Amino acid sequence: HITVDNLVEEHYSRNPRLVNGLYQWGYIEELGLGIDRMIEDMVNAGHPPPKFESPGHRFTVTLYNARDEARPPEPWENNMNERQLKALEYVQRNGSISNGDYRQLCQHVGPETLRLDLVDMVNRGVLLKIGDKRGTRYILK
Q1: Band of pLDDT at residue 16, cut at 50, 70 and 90
Q2: Strand runs (DSSP E) across the chain, as ranges?
Q3: pLDDT tens string 78-93
Q4: Do residues 16 and 105 lie in contact, with contact meaning Cβ atoms separated by under 8 Å?
Q5: What CATH number matches the domain at 74-140, 3.90.180.10, 3.40.50.80, 1.50.10.20, 1.10.10.10?
Q6: Tens digit of each residue's pLDDT (9 = 90 or more) over 92-104
Q7: Chain centroid, CA 54 distance in Å
C-alpha cells in the first residue's frame, strides 16, 4: 500500500503488463524511478523538493520554482548536535548533502557516527533520503 509518507521507498505498478510493455518499448528507462528522479532533478536544479499530498481521493504534486530559505522549526534545532546543524545549514545552502559531503564537513568524526547522524535526521522527518548506496543524497523534507 503506497502512501505519501512511503512514496519514495515503495514502488507499485497498478498494471504490471502495461509497465513492462512501456519498458520493453523504451518509453521508460527503469521501473520505479519516476518519483526519485523527479525529486533529484528538482534538487539538482536548485529548487526545493516536490511536495506530495493526498487529501481525500486525489493526489497532488507541487513543484516549487525557488528554494525556500526557511529555517527548521526551533524544537529540531534544540535536539540536534552541532554536526547535524552543520549538515542542515549545508542542505539549506546547496539543496542536498551526500555522506561524502558530510564527511568533508566533519573530518574529525568517524564515518559510522556521521551515517547515524543522517539516519537520525531522516527518522525525525527533517531530511528525506533519495537514492541508495553511493548515489544517496539527503534533502530537506
Answers
A1: confident
A2: 51-53, 60-62, 127-130, 137-140
A3: 688 999 999 999 998 8
A4: no
A5: 1.10.10.10
A6: 888 899 999 999 9
A7: 18
Q: Residue for cell digits 556521521?
A: 114
Amino acid symbol at 134: R
Quick check: 43 and 49 in contact, CB under 8 A? yes
The domains of the chain are located at 74-140
- What is the C-alpha separation between 64 and 49, in angstroms, rounded? 7
Per the structure block, which three cell numbers stand in for 82? Answer: 552541532
Residue the block writes with cell 533520503? 129
d(CA 104, CA 52): 32
